[in-house]
Amino acid sequence: LKFLGTTQLGYYTLGLLICRSLLYLPGVVGMIIEPRLFNKYGESEEIEDLKKYLFVPAQAMAVFLPLLIAVVYFVSSFVIRHFLIQYAISLIPLLILLFGKFFLLFSPTTKSLLTALNKQHKMLYFYLIGIFLTTFLDILVLKMGFGMIAVALVTTSVSFLLGTAIFIYASSFYLKKWMSRFLICAKLYF
Question: Positive or negative CA dihedral for 98, 101, 103, 108?
Fold first, then answer.
């Protein structure tokens, strides 16, 4: 509020509000798969049995989430351009923020997998680092005189780093070589 002002913050908040709609599809996928994941792990207690619960949903989301992001952007863009013309300035930050959501949401079962493996506390470290990094970089770009587009770029960059780091950590239980972990991420992102 101090750095952006109420008007710019309002435009940025509109983008954040629209981005929240993307949480539903990965959330539903996670709710459907989570009981199966826990059941499978409870039966065998073999970590290898959970492998498909990490990679298969990530592959499916890597295909469908960009389509959902496009639909959300085009519908929001249409509504803003035709009915909320005064908010048209929020479209560029919205597009950037929507792009960043992909990296946080493409693997909807990562959190469940880490919970099943009793590694959920590791996610806390990732998120705390992400919050600190976003806050520090946002304040930095705002003090440098950049506006809400720069804040959206910082947020998307940290979303990329955070989503990638958590997925690479979860995939480390199955893929022992660093290069194979990065290659699977590159494949999913492509």
Answer: negative
